[in-house]
Write a structure and sequence with these properties.
mainly beta
Length: about 240
């Protein structure tokens, strides 16, 4: 595999994986990827080498169609998180101002644009997202290294950031998934790998660090009205 190119591997249930193939479109990235199934397509998101945010998608057993910048004009230096929930596909990103933003689209429609996730949290780390029951959850490590969660019902605003019960700390990426009757979040710790289950009980929650003072809401860094260099996602030559 060539450095910075984007590859995919897949397997049928109870079968071995087929092997690695470059995703059609020839994109390059310096960051981890995010993926989600939505409607009749599989979507993969990447921050390009120009820091813009791109999406590529494919129908079942079909090739990917190529990379396109998602609407809203955001830029980021961090990995993305993606999840489908209800009638929308969501992608989350950390802005260059360290705030946490979300963009979403209905099937076969353009993305609406970047807005800050309600609650005013700041993070220096990648995010994780998962749909569970009647809510969409997003997880982030605060600037105090504690692990926080925010959630929203379909087409409703997010409730605000609270600490996940259990008191874990991390300086690394999180991962989240719903399985059976539980929502799981994974973290890298200083000792053995940890698994936290989101439950109804635990110690009092803490608020996600808002930083020194609450600044007014503003669009995702690099959004509309902000001048950006005319760069594009890099493609393979030839």
């Amino acid at each position: 595999m060539n450095h910075n190119r984007i590859y995919v591997n897949s397997a049928r249930q109870n079968q071995p994986f087929d092997g690695w193939n470059e995703i059609q479109g020839g994109g390059l990235t310096d960051h981890p990827l995010a993926a989600a199934a939505f409607g009749d397509r599989l979507y993969v998101f990447a921050a390009g080498t120009d820091r813009r945010i791109y999406v590529n998608s494919a129908r079942q057993n079909q090739p990917f169609g190529g990379w396109n910048e998602i609407q809203g004009g955001g830029i980021t230096d961090h990995p993305l998180a993606a999840a489908s929930f209800g009638d929308r596909l969501y992608v989350f990103g950390r802005g260059t101002d360290r705030r946490i933003y979300v963009n979403s689209a209905r099937q076969d429609h353009p993305f609406d644009g970047w807005t800050e996730v309600q609650g005013g949290g700041l993070t220096d780390h990648p995010l994780a997202a998962a749909a569970f029951g009647d809510r969409l959850y997003v997880f982030g490590a605060g600037t105090d290294r504690r692990i926080y969660v925010n959630s929203a019902r379909q087409n409703q605003p997010f409730d605000g950031w609270t600490e996940v019960q259990g008191g874990g700390l991390t300086d690394h990426s999180l991962a989240a998934a719903a399985f059976g009757d539980r929502l799981y979040v994974f973290r890298h710790g200083d000792g053995p790998a940890d698994l936290r289950q989101l439950g109804p009980s635990g110690p009092p929650v803490r608020r996600l660090d808002r930083g020194p003072g609450r600044r007014p809401y503003r669009p995702f860094a690099g959004g509309r009205g902000v001048r950006r260099p005319a760069l594009r996602f890099r493609h393979r030559d030839g």
